[in-house]
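Record type: monomer structure entry
Structure origin: computed from sequence
Chain ID: A
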Amino acid sequence: MTEEFRREPSNTEATVAGKIVRRLVLPDSRAEVELPVLLSDDGRLVRVHVRDDDPFAEETLSALLDRKVLVRGTWRNGVLRAARDDLQILESP
C-alpha cells in the first residue's frame, strides 16, 4: 500500500490531528529527503512546515516524533505551514 499525501488549495486554513512520523518525501526526485510528517487520523500523510525551522531538518517536528499532535495552519504548495504556537501535543508515546 502506498501512502497518500494530502494536498489542499493554497491559502486554505486547516486543523489536522495525527501522529508525527518519519517518511520519504519527494521519492525518486533530486529533492528526495526523509522528513517528519503528520500521519493524520484519516490515514493520509500531511507535509507540515513549522515557520522559522530549517525546511530540510524540521527541528520542531523532529522533537515531536511518535507523539499525537494537533496542527493549525495554512496550506501553501502542498505543505501545511504553522507557527510553533499552533502545534498542540495531544498525547505522548
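Annotation 1: The first helix runs from residue 59 to 62.
Annotation 2: The two ends are 25 Å apart (CA to CA).
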